[in-house]
From TrEMBL:
Pfam families: PAPS_reduct. This is Sulfate adenylyltransferase subunit 2. InterPro entries: PAPS_reduct_dom, Rossmann-like_a/b/a_fold, SO4_adenylTrfase_ssu, Sulfate_adenylyltrnsfr_sub2. Keywords: ATP-binding, Nucleotide-binding, Nucleotidyltransferase, Transferase. One of its GO terms (molecular function) is sulfate adenylyltransferase (ATP) activity.
Amino acid sequence: MSTLTKQTLSHLDWLEAEAIHILREVAGQCANPVLLFSGGKDSICLLRLAEKAFRPGRFPFPLMHIDTGHNYKEVTDFRDKRAAELGERLIVRSVEDSMARGTVVLKHPGESRNKHQSVTLLEAIEEFGFDACIGGARRDEEKARAKERIMSFRDEFGQWDPKNQRPELWNLYNARSHKGENIRAFPISNWTELDVWQYIQREQLELPSIYFAHTRPVVRKNGLLQPVTELTPARDGDVVEDVLVRFRTVGDITCTAPVESDADTVEKILAETATTTITERGATRMDDQTSEASMEQRKKEGYF
């Protein structure tokens, strides 16, 4: 997109136009892409962008979710409802399937399944022969994602090498790959959390209810609020509190924490997001706190 064109568009309009361009590049260059749709806010934005890129025709790719089996029901119910509303094919593959095959083995029953999604994703890519996966990752979420290209090349083992990335000059994107290799495409990579919420407001997008303030029992641990659920029960000595919270990001129950908030509307969330100084993953993801390189290591192994 030329500088002149960019200057004539609003910030959101420009982000939208660039994301639509990327979606169309993937559809044009790749033989068998898929859009990863979890029911979370970023992938909900991707669906609206895909509608604008390809309607009134069908999407040139199916939707797919890699489910840990431990996702919040509010989110998976919304996932199924939204896919049905759009009339698009939804593929769901579960970490539990990989566990049944023996390709995922947990160290103990209580281990988070989140990192094991990489195995199930790579198995699904091989099963369907996908040569590109379109995801909603953003550079502002985490530093490993900040240095990843919009068209991120993965080798025949699904691995990402941060020291061997393709140049992306003047919005020219290379999504070509050999058989067995894969591209991960991130159309909203340059969006911020605030951009996402502004787009949700402008497009009046429906979201799962847990993105908005609600009362939930939690335990305070390591600076985070751990939800008290059947999967994550309170332990001896834990102090359970009923706290008004919302989720900034949604994922596996065992590693996704809410934040204290009374923001029960998009407008209130926008005001809250504009003043926050901690990234959404930094504030909510227990799996990113195991080490400074947690995300980068998972991405090297095939993670989203």
